[in-house]
Amino acid sequence: MTDLINLMNDLLWGSILVYLLVGVGIYFTVRLGFIQFRHFGHMFSVLKNSRKADKAGISSFQALCTSLAARVGTGNMAGVAVALTAGGPGAIFWMWLIAMLGMATSFAESTLAQLYKTKDDDGNYRGGPAYYMEKGLGMRWMGVLFSVFLIIAFGLVFNAVQANSIANAMSNAFGWNDLYVGIAVVALSAVVIFGGIKRIAKVAELIVPIMALLYLVLALFVVFSNLEKLPDVLMLIFKSAFGLQEAAAGGLGYAIAQAMINGIKRGLFSNEAGMGSAPNAAASATPYPPHPASQGYVQMLGVFMDTIVICSATVAIILMSGEYVGQATEVTGIELTQRALSSQVGDWGGIFVAVAIFFFAFTSIIANYSYAETNLIFLEHNHKAGLSIFRVVVLGMVMFGALASLPVVWSLADVSMGLMAIVNLVAILLLSGIVIKLAKDYNRQLGEGKVPTFDANDFPELKSQLEDGIWDNTKKD
């Protein structure tokens, strides 16, 4: 089984996804006029009224926090450490690059998710890649395929990954038994996920900003305490990214390939740009400005915050600590991050990382579940009995993750993530014309000094694809 998983990983990540992710990122960056750079400031200004919502949706800020809850987890702390030990410091450069390109990809998928959202039986907004595959492309089979991959990945495998890191962190910091940690995480997760999407959004809105801010403050302390090392660390990252460190030893090509593969793989796991996960949160929002593209900007900010800000904080902590001694470093994952921070601030640093990983990974678990639930509804299995059974299965995977070994769990996550990403990337490429049209409409109105507002009646070619009543007559006279 392990050999099969490794074979699939080599196939997906050895060539297919590396080229596809970079290619799609470049395509949308160019087609959208380098939107992530030209409108960098607008990503922040669009949050000014982001706490507005109606009865059917969560607020844009809650959608951002929910997507960040899924993004900011083990990928930021454990995943960065894995990338460093597997691909060297150069992997960080490629992680940054895929994030910058991925911001444009994230704009595209989240804008589409908003456009094609629907209302479920309880009157809540639902949407995501499966929905725009069905409505925008007329390919329900593609949406079904994506939903199955997402449910496996986010409902099951990724939650096992998050629980795995929580258990490891608690064991390293406090010596707690994995079984008891697993039981505690299952119990807390059950309280939230049985409360539905709005309870999940409220918990994410409360926890994520506080923990992210505390983690960044601690990382800045490490940076300023070792400011003289900063130029050397940056030089190491860039040299390693292009194999300059290894060129003399004749390992140039292999070194670059390893750095690229591990950086892109871990970068995608962390920021999820193009994977098709965050659009499920974006679709649940009541956007302001009331235009699908506004959620594109919000979710672009999510990618930036996740990788360029929070992942970089972990990079700084590890590379400035002296605990990283090359790819021969004996420890990896969350243990390396804990050791690195402890070496800088004392033993309580490891405890802080354990607490941080608990909250980050816990919110990831509940956000991941919300994505899976949305896709279960797409598959028309949203009756109460079916949802209850699925929730129990999800909680079972959380327990499994707390007890499983790291390599197997990460490998399963890599395969499921790769399959999801391929299906979604194909879909957004096929729908790219609509993304460009919506971006131009939004920016035209913005340039005219108006609050960008979308009305389906102005787009007769799209109106028949959209659910009645959601985007009709939104413009105010």
Give a description of the structure.
The protein has 477 residues and is mostly helical. It has one domain: Amino acid/polyamine transporter I, CATH 1.20.1740.10. It is 74% helix and 2% strand. It contains 20 helices and four strands. It has helices spanning 2-31, 35-38, 40-45, 60-71, 74-87, 90-115, 129-135, 140-174, 178-193, 197-225, 230-241, 252-271, 278-282, 292-321, 333-345, 348-378, 384-403, 406-430, 432-447, 460-463; strands spanning 58-59, 118-119, 125-126, 285-286. It is globular. Keywords: Cell inner membrane, Cell membrane, Membrane, Symport, Transmembrane, Transmembrane helix, Transport. It is a multi-pass membrane protein.
Briefly characterize the structure.
The chain is mainly alpha-helical. Helices cover 74% and strands 2% of the residues. Strands 1-4 form a two-stranded parallel sheet.
| Mean residue pLDDT | 83
> What's the shape?
globular
Instruction: Count the DSSP helices.
Output: 20
CATH class: Mainly Alpha
Number of E-type strands: 4
Question: How does the major sheet shape up?
Answer: 2 strands, parallel
Alpha carbon gyration radius: 21 Å
CATH superfamily: Amino acid/polyamine transporter I
Domain count: the total is: 1
CATH fold description: Amino acid/polyamine transporter I
Low confidence ranges: 246-251
Arrangement of strands in the largest sheet: 1-4
Name the structural class: mainly alpha
CATH architecture: Up-down Bundle
Helix content: over 70%
Distance between the termini: 62 Å
* H/E series: HHHEHHHEEHHHHHHHEHHHHHHH
The percentage of residues in β strands lies in under 5%
